[in-house]
Fold:
Amino acid sequence: MTSFRNAFLLLPLLALASACSDDDFDPQTQIGADPVLPEQQQYLFPPMHIASVVGWKKGETPAVAPGLKIAAFATDLQHPRSVYVLPNGDVLAVESKGPGTEPARRPKDLVMGWIQSLSTGGGGDQPSNRITLLRDADGDGVPEVKSVFLDHLDSPFGVALVGEDLYVANTNAIMRYPYRTGQTVITAKPTMLTALPGGPIDHHWTKSLVASPDGTKLYVGVGSNSNITENGIQAEENRAAIWEVDRASGAWRIFASGLRNPNGLSIEPVTKQLWTVVNERDELGPNLVPDYMTSVRDGAFYGWPYSYYGQHIDPRVMPQRPDLVEKAIVPDYALGSHVAPLGMTFYAAEALPQKYRGGAFVGEHGSWNRKTFNGYKVVFVPFEAGHPSGKAEDVVTGFLNKNDEARGRPVGVGVDVRGALLIADDVGNTVWRVTAGS
Amino acid sequence: MATTEDAYPPALHRHSPPELIAAFAIACMIGGLLTDIAYWNSAEFLWADFSAWLVSTGAVAAVVAILAAIIGNLIARPRPRLVPPLPYLLAGTLVVVLAVFNTLIHSRDAWTSVVPWGLTLSAATVFVLLLTAIWHMLALRRADRELQP
Structure:
């Protein structure tokens, strides 16, 4: 891959296209409430720099911030994308693969698909799309029970338990299963609560899920069907939005829109407000558009596709909608361009050092659309009284090795009943567990 | 006209493979300009997809045609010509450069894959093709007059 990448960079056209170096821009200026937004830049060919996959060698782990230690909680999973902790302490690892229903409609899709397959190949074709239950009853960080909890799912991602109703957000529907505490396998047939926008295309397929504090509603993240409407605005109906689903009836409405790819839906423990992390648009430059985390206001419009960070208009969308751009609101907290946040969890436990209490952990899957990698780590955003109160800091790093090859990539994050941070690593096929210590 | 045909050596009545490939490329480029105009007028994404295919296919075919012509000239006995080859080579090179840039522009997403630069390059490509065709016609006519004063 490296030689291929170098050969690719030698292409004079590509060099011209990415001549504007992203090295002299400080990514730190794009973290926080008021990110620096440079001029837009459109490419002759978008920079594609994806870390080739080498995986974790025996004994290797990511690095953690001082005062923390990390160990593999479960290995040999198949593309784990999110984690969910049941009240009795059992951990659900959601192993999931994309539906693969996006056709190559343009020559560009063929070329990009080919480049991506070169760099992320070797993912294996083992069975995925299932949920594995991991039980570590004695709390030593090594599960004694590992069982297939649910199988033959349809690109699942979000999980939420309310009472004895377990909801799984497949890419095309929310399914409800009966769950009794202690179960290690669910064999009961599910009931469909609500159909979700899946195929055709299904560009952003992960459906994040969280229940409202009173348990009457479910919030679902539904990502856009394109980067920036290149599949037609018709394909975006009811997408790039967070849905509010009534748990009793399955009826739904758009709770907030203009959110290109919302994931990591979580309830902030102090204000009880809904928060999300969002993947913003690509191919406007190495430092545009910063991905973000934000509280989600009922009825609010966050810009996609017409604009970003308020009224910054995207010239690629036609016809434009000045009426919508006018009311687009600025998200709360930028995380950096192309970091690809796919998981978020608030830390309401007490086992980790004091400074982590009340803040949010964010899993950043990592960039492809800039020369210098961004993301590929788990960061922590401190909160005070329910609002971000400082710069994001690195908590778990080292997913890339010294040669910029991917040993793993973090996705969903969660907190187990003992207060440890859990991280789903889809490329490393591992769930990591971070505890206090050194 | 029969007398004119008889005046030319038989090799001139045949189309070489590079010429046939070039004809295909030219058809793609003209088609790409038309679908660009359709997208410009409608903002209907399907036209942009058609443009991307036509423009890229045209560029690939044009590169193949030029390479085939160069190789053909290197390995084969030079064919008799009615008009000098250098202007063709220059025009062909210009078209290939325009088409390659146009392909890259057309690899963008949505509106700016066509407007303004994709459309402009498509029009420029077709304009160069048109000038070359006119020049070719005039040159042939001059050759005719020289053969049959």
